[in-house]
Amino acid sequence: MQLRPGIRVVLRYRDGESATDALGTVEDVTDDTVTVRTKRGSTVVQRDAILLAHEVPPAPVRTGLPHEVVSAVDLRRISAAAWLPPESTWLHSDNVRAEAEGATDFVQTGWLLRSEPAAPSKRANSTLPLDDPGMPAAQALDAVENWYTSRDARPMVQIYSADASSALTPACAELGPLLRERGYEAMPPTLLLTGATREAAAGATRAADVALPGLTIEVSDSPSADYLAALGYPADHEGHEAFRRLLTSAEQVQFLTAWAHHPDGSRSPVSACRLVEVSRWAVVTNLVTQPALRRRGAGRAIVRAAIATAAGRGVRSFLAEVESDNTASIALFESLGAAVAQRAWFARR
What we know:
By secondary structure, this protein is an alpha+beta fold. It contains eleven helices and 17 strands. The chain folds into three domains: 8-55, SH3 type barrels; 66-189, no CATH class; 194-340, Gcn5-related N-acetyltransferase (GNAT) (Aminopeptidase, 3-Layer(aba) Sandwich), CATH 3.40.630.
């Protein structure tokens, strides 16, 4: 696996004549060492001493099922990692100082700034406050506005709740009033739903296990031209390549398509979605179903196929983000045992 700052791992490594483990969040990675922040402090592990490296889910904040006890900030980290444009950077006072000194060793904490102007996606063109940026919120927001203005873009910030209610998480509580003071306008909320893969997959561990009669389900590592067109980005669209980069930006991403087969030997796509595995979570995004074939179970089947695929790899939890007015998609995920865990708003000036 690729070790990178910000992920939670367990490392088994040689320590003298025996082996020991380090469980925690990766703080730093060099050619020779990996630094892991554990409960006992930072542990520096020599790369050539590592026997096993395994990514683990974020630490729970209370007891219960994994998808019910993950923190609000970790949920947002997981969601963001599934949709990360190439131009992304972390706003933190340590990084500001490092850049001023000509250094390139930046911390991956603070506020996440994202930009992909060729693809009009709110998630890919907004700032996400995750941790303390090491400076007052007003100063951090000044930096955000300057960053987007330098790219000829309107600044946009994504804020989110601590739970299923509308109460903002501490990372956003101070920022909300500041955004209103500066004339930012909040858009309708999106809902983040979480669930258990075992319940949703109902014992299935392969995409083919949940295919409806007359349909086959295909799993691919790249999006098809039909899928991109269904998402509004056909080959002749000016944002086609940028959107394709976004879809494939995650480290572990797959695309599932349900195909209908016809008597003449041809086939046509019925429904499709994107599956990303992040920190041992399955993130289901970009669900599309042919308009004439909606409400026949194809959308639910392709989502179940994605979740079953993840369950077959030992992933226990899944999440999806849905616009609050998309009642059909909300009902679909709720029928698979998911429940609203968080609300989020994009605010643009």
